[in-house]
Design brief:
By secondary structure, this protein is mainly α. 85% of the residues lie in helices and 0% in strands. The protein is elongated.
Length: 125
Amino acid sequence: MTEYEVLNLMYLGFVQNGMFFVAMTLMTWLGFRMANNVYNSDADMSAKVFTSIFCLFVAFFFYTTNQIGGSILTSYTSQLVEMGADSGVRLKAIVDSPAAAGGSIQTAFTLFILVFQLAIVWKKK
């Protein structure tokens, strides 16, 4: 495969992963709305439990989406580096960054969102 073909396939993977990211962003927003509604109403224990389970699932799927994006970047970058392509060297610097797709900063942000949502659900009014 040529450098162009590898980059094209990588970008196709990012487009599909980006659609999942948009879906997870909307589900995260819905989780915040649900948490806010539980907090502002006299919700019973089952509402708190189900909202917490929903937020846990969304956080897990958000984490998985981020890791898939990181895997796409890592696998295609390694192919480009093996080819000796200049773009592979530049992408390798991004892969090695903690802010890369699927990196530690994205994971910490996902955990932050989850803790924030659960704090809204379970704190006393």
